[in-house]
Amino acid sequence: MDTQGRPSPEQLNRLLSRCRERTYQPKRLALAIDRSISTFSILEVSTGKLVGFVRVTSDKGLNANLWNLVAEPGPNQRIFFLVLVHRSLATIRRELPGCSISVAAPSIAIGALENQGFLMDPGGIRAMGLRLR
Prior knowledge:
Blueprint lengths: L8 H10 L7 H9 L3 E6 L6 E9 L4 E9 L5 H19 L4 E4 L6 H6 L18
Parallel strand pairs: 3-4
Antiparallel strand pairs: 1-2, 2-3
């Protein structure tokens, strides 16, 4: 489990906002981060600013999920996505072998996901989501 350097909900919400992704109530986001199997962050060296993030959840049996996959818009965004996806998958393969992996990600991350072997709608299976409020 990677617990080093977990961002605060406020830091993550700022990054989500800069990436034009949905933000969350800090208490709910803190709970989600705490209940994650692992989290991975990319910080800007000079400022410590959060520029990339993903968290992993799992039932520790059949399924693993990547959530909140975000990377700071700009020239390094695709590289950040590649690093986050690669690192997450390496951990899942090592700690949760045999799990099916799904991901909720923005369209800009599709290239990084395909680079790691993800297939869009494999076998015609389409994922659907429902926002619970």
